[in-house]
Phosphoinositide-3-kinase regulatory subunit 6 (Apteryx owenii), 754 residues
Amino acid sequence: MESAEVESDILRRVRTLLRELDGHHPAFQCDRGMLRWTLHKKIDQNPNNSSILVGILVKELERAERSDYRHYIIPLLHTLMYALIKAPCISEDLCSRVYDFCKKLLTLPKPFCTIGLDYAVRLKMERTAPGMLYQRMVISEQSLKSDPYPYQEKVFIFADPELLSEAICNALVTDTEAAQVSQSPRACMSYVIIHAMLAGLGEGCDISGLKRSLQDMPANDVEHWFRQVVVAVECTGNKVNADRSQHMARLEEIYRAVLGSVPAGDTPLGELQGIPLPNPNISFHLWTEDDQLWKELVLFIRPLSQSCEPDLLSQDLDNFEIQDIISDCECCKQTRFSVLSTDSGIERDLPAAAEESVAPCSAETEQSRLQRKGGIKKKASPLESVAFLQAGCNSPGAKQVMKPQRRSGITPEPVALLQRQHTARIVLLGDDRILGRLAQAYHSLRKRETRRVFLTPRLNLQFYHIPVVTGQPNTLAVANCPAAGREELCEVAGYLGRADPWYESNINTLCHMIPKLATMPSSPSKHLVTDLFLTDVIAYYVRMGIQPVCFQVYAVKIFFNDPAQEPAEDVFLTELLTSMQESISHRELAMSKKKMTLDGPGIDLTVTYRKVVVSDRVKEVAMSLRSTGLVMKAIPADEAEDLVCLNVNITEIIKSNNLSGRSFSAVANRLKTHSIKIRSTEQRPFTLCLDKDSRRAYRNVISMEVSPCLEPSYCLQKTRTMKFSLHEAEDVGLVKYMPKSLLLPINTFAGVIQ
């Protein structure tokens, strides 16, 4: 195909993509979400198309900016940057135009200025050291060992087996495993070397000869040259005024050394060859245990391969559980929190490095030296905790904390600042019910981290959501919690799609596509589509979706009609639903029927809530009414509404007397509040269901209190502050600068576009 025809075809596809953003969908609904994929596949199939695609996207961006079509800017910019990362050679002129356009976005409101600044910083490094973005992405996603860039990433896909069919789960397991087959560390290192040479030295490289030389080379030599390339690119990219000629000279030196005496390849010089961008490291998990998320994150930070004994990590996990139990028991006696101590005084807690630094002792010396006995770790003072937080912050102004040495005769040395070198990208596959489980797990994780900090200073957590709804969901998960339809089960995804059109186009379209692909009969075409399309879309989402939308997590305290039963505490993200509960005993049934005859169906409730007013002043409202049930929605129907607000719909029963007798009518009573208390005045219990999941239903409820869930670390610091100022009602000191509410961030491509 000639260059003019290729350019015309790509331009037509880009214009079709923009029409889809305007709401004009293609003739075939199944094509939604595949337009972006086909554009980037053209680069993979023919790298010579990369400059054409980038040039067209730059022109469309400039046209959108002139015509004030802001809803085009972020989708086009993401598509452009993804093409720039994958493309081996882009001219300096095109990179300069994209860089200038990103700087123009700094004058626009969020999220345009945020995304523009992020991409401008990346482009500046890419222009200084071509191929740097590709190199960093491959190193982090494949966890390749690299001292200049020691960052690691992993994608965790979590699916609830009771919400998705077995066919969908099996298909996703097969796809994620197949995507990792051809991605050995050696192959990924070779990709980085070849891409750096092509990006830095241009199209004159002998790519075929370079590939042949790397294939014939021992693995140790490939790793050696990989490290040399990484050092050269990172050093140049991190310099303020780097000398481009010196960088190219160093790459030329490495290129000649790697190529050696290999005969020239059969591909003509100047003809680009495709260098694949490997899929990220993806693992698929069926969510069967409540603390499974936390365990997987700990395994990511401390893999079993780093332990001398296979059971060492599981023992550490048990120690975490024991420490949490000790903290909880002592909290029952007095208000206290267990935090990470700098020195426990227990022998087994000595790090491996400290043990190895000491020469092996004889048996007599081992018996004669002082032994550390088992004991309970001493609680650190607030100053020590603040110092630990400073050590966890990767800021130049943080003070270095002096670590007390366990061995005598060793001079104290500063503790190395903890850096978040690990990034866990958690992809939740399903509907609102799995997001409700995520809110529970996230709240549990934050409480665990408050008691004993481990993951927070080391791990960067990113959450993603791909909606999937099957035709016939598991009846165990929907009984007693009737959802109106698929739209009701995907309220979060619907909100994200309305707030971010690019999320709607690329991710929400998978809601019905994944079940169809999973149930397709086995064929070569099905294997091609699922392996390429689903894996690529997930990779594109986790790579480019870096703008979070924060959802408020709500806490509910539940009281039961049995005084001996302890109140329950839980959290929810999307919905709380109450309904009347059938009477159990004949006496209660007879009394309820008599009451219904006089007062109508339902139960008498006392509702106390804080009314939402424009001035943000607190206005307490109390009322009594008869109701058959209510529903609290935490996700607004309009993206312009406040996310930190509960929309309460109470079905109120109104009694009226007329000539024909007594009649009853149901009226919808709508409230907007941040916190609410509801109690059954006649002591008749009702049923409560959280996040549309019957597995999280509570029976025999007599009263409940709902309010925004507080961040556990805020509660810890607030408790410490109250010890020293018992009469202070307002937040003072460090508490003023800490996040008060627990927010669950879910990443999209643009966040919320106002």
Remarks:
- The two ends are 42 Å apart (CA to CA).
- Confidence is low (pLDDT under 50) at residues 307-313, 324-340, 353-373, 377-417.
- Residues 312-333 form the longest helix (22 residues).
- Residues 4 and 412 are 69 Å apart (CA to CA).
